Recover the amino acids of this structure.
């Protein structure tokens, strides 16, 4: 049977780019350059503040220069564990010469050698030279694990959180070091392949200790031997020091035509274990490819030079971003939008993954997500048509043009709500407020293991994401007021679709038998009110960004208001059908809920790579009593799974205007209704830590 499929280009990049602009970008980016650049990066164990990280930074900056980018250079930011960048405390550097672990008796075998396989030695291990027995302490993270055991001078075998094992076994009980099979970054796939060796890091602020990492399988064998009363003697030799140093951050630009028009920033994180192909070598080489292609097209005149400067930053996750922005407040104030790539190169079939365009949080409504979504759908459409036998390889963007072939896979990708976990947390946070288009593969079966390697990467995928990022970045950099008449109807339609989705959710809430009828009405209506405001703000963000005249979006706002009114009416009808009399808040309007929260601490979110500002300021005992973070649950929801998101957004909603009650309503609309008590208790702990004040 011969199928002839005519593609009517139902999905295209309009109205953001012309067909010609899109095909120029699509054809210029390739998947081989990033794939080959990744080959180099994956050879380096890229721990911030180490020689190997410096080598990676050197490689990227040389490539950026070679590609003709402007002002490509590396900056060094001093770190000593005390100095702060914004709200974030700096960490420490690590200098490692060697690390070997042998089993001496009864067998003579090499267990790990940092020189040939750096992931085997946990980051921030200290110098040691010991010949000693191995002792099993289970997880090794509670006092109970050490009862009746003498670990002094020995090496403990443990699978609990490494920094906690270090504190208990080494610092408190005098163990020499640790042998660990801690399951770093668990996913639903964790444990399926017991031969993976996971990346481990000790707490650099502890004065002593070393750890070697082994697979679950190897650890299991050792545990069985110890359980059978075998005496296992190991020899560890480590030459490494932890101390002050610096973080290296690369940056380069494509100069915009109008120096006063602001900047668009592309980001990724250059650090992580060797090989760290997807996480996040892939993001680093893919923004580099976007840089190469855009620079070439702009330089040659094929694409008009955009008015905004496009900046690229490669540094340690969170830490490089915070250090760079804190040092360059002029640039921070100049940033208008962010394209962040963290894990974008995985072969989605091998990694059992999906590529996500991730929305900005509700505290920062922005049109930037919809721009990314347009290019995602365009590429996805081309890929699907091709995979099914009817499309063109050009539109599918399969990487078969140069020596290394990419796959012909479909492009499994979607648009998902905000999620935490990378530098976009910094950009999207309220005191930086640069809306981020966050691109990521999730899950990834090999994350933070020795198997996150080039073999799991796909040149076709790299090419597709490079094009997606480059096109979105070019749109942000070029966006101008004259485009608004074409763009506003399009973006209004996107907002209407999202508002509809919120209404569907509100309908479920209003009928939720777990909530009293009047309260359910209040929560459903609260969701609708916040959704409508979010979409109004989204349209406004487009007008503001492009420099359009005030109220350009009024037609769109009217359409949204009309839609919102109908939804509100229908919710009321649903509520009344189950006997509700009036929407009633679950919290009373007492004095506490009227207090207004004001940010007083320096900029940045609370959580960064190696720093938790709230924990550092309050101490562990007080911190452990914060109800929200303990997963305190109320009538409607257990917040345990989403406590990080709630905490992140509660602080973001602090703007000097919202009251405690209003912040509660804002996060309840974004996630699920949450008891006022949890929000109030969290805000009070922030006030105690002098991050905010409550007036
Ligand atoms: Zn990452």
């Amino acid at each position: 049977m011969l199928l002839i499929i005519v593609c009517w280009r139902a999905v295209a990049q309009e109205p953001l780019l012309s067909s010609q602009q899109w095909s120029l970008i699509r054809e210029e980016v390739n998947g081989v350059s990033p794939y080959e650049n990744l080959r180099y990066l994956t050879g380096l164990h890229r721990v911030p503040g180490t020689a190997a990280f410096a080598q990676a930074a050197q490689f990227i900056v040389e490539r950026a220069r070679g590609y003709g980018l402007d002002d490509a250079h590396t900056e060094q930011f001093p770190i000593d564990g005390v100095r702060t960048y914004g709200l974030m405390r700096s960490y420490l550097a690590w200098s490692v010469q060697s690390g070997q672990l042998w089993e001496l008796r009864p067998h003579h075998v090499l267990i790990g050698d940092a020189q040939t396989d750096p992931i085997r030695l946990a980051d921030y291990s200290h110098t040691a030279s010991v010949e000693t027995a191995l002792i099993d302490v289970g997880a090794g993270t509670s006092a109970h694990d050490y009862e009746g055991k003498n670990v002094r001078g020995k090496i403990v075998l443990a699978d609990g959180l490494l920094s906690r094992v270090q504190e208990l076994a080494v610092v408190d009980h005098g163990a020499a070091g640790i042998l660990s099979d801690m399951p770093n970054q668990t996913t639903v796939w964790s444990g399926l392949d017991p031969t993976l060796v996971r990346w481990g890091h000790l707490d650099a602020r502890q004065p002593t200790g070393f750890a070697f990492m082994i697979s679950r399988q190897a650890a299991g064998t050792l545990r069985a031997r110890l359980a059978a009363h075998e005496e296992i003697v190991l020899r560890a030799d480590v030459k490494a020091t932890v101390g002050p140093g610096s973080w290296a951050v690369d940056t380069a630009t494509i100069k915009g035509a109008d120096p006063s028009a602001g900047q668009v920033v592309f980001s990724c994180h250059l650090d992580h274990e060797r090989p760290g192909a997807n996480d996040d070598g892939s993001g680093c080489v893919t923004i580099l490819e976007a840089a190469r292609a855009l620079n070439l097209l702009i330089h040659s005149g094929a694409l008009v030079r955009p008015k905004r400067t496009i900046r690229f930053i490669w540094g340690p996750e969170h830490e490089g971003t915070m250090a760079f922005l804190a040092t360059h407040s002029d640039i921070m104030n100049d940033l208008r939008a962010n394209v962040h790539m963290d894990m974008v190169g995985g072969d989605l079939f091998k990694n059992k993954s999906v590529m996500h365009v991730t929305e900005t949080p509700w505290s920062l409504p922005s049109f930037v997500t919809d721009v990314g979504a347009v290019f995602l759908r365009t590429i996805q459409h081309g890929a699907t048509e091709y995979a099914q036998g009817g499309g063109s390889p050009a539109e599918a963007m399969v990487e078969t043009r140069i020596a290394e072939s990419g796959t012909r896979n479909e492009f499994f990708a979607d648009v998902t709500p905000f999620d935490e976990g990378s530098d976009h947390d910094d950009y999207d946070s309220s005191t930086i407020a640069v809306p981020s288009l966050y691109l990521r593969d999730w899950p990834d079966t090999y994350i933070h293991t020795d198997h996150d390697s080039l073999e799991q990467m796909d040149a076709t995928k790299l090419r597709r994401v490079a094009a997606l990022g480059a096109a979105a970045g070019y749109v942000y950099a070029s966006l101008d007021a004259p485009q608004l008449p074409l763009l506003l109807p399009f973006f209004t339609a996107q907002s209407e679709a999202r508002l509809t989705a919120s209404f569907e959710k509100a309908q479920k809430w209003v009928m939720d038998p777990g909530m009293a009828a009047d309260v359910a009405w209040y929560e459903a209506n609260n969701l609708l009110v916040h959704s409508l405001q979010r979409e109004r703000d989204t349209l406004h963000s487009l007008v503001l960004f492009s420099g359009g005249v005030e109220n350009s979006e009024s037609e769109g706002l009217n359409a949204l208001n009309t839609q919102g009114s109908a939804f509100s009416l229908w919710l009321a009808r649903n509520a009344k059908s189950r006997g509700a009399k009036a929407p009633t808040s679950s919290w009373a309007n007492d004095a506490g809920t009227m207090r207004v929260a004001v940010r007083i601490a320096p900029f940045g979110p609370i959580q960064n790579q190696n720093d938790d500002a709230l924990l550092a300021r309050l101490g562990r005992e007080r911190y452990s009593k914060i109800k929200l973070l303990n997963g305190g649950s109320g009538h409607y929801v257990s917040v345990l799974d989403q406590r990080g998101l709630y905490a992140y957004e509660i602080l973001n909603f602090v703007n000097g205007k919202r009251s405690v009650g209003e912040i509660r309503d804002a996060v309840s609309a974004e996630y699920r209704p949450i008891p006022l008590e949890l929000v109030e208790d969290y805000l009070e702990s922030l006030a105690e830590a002098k991050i905010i004040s409550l007036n």
Observations:
- The pocket of zinc ion is lined by residues 269, 279-280, 342-343, 422 (CB under 6 Å).
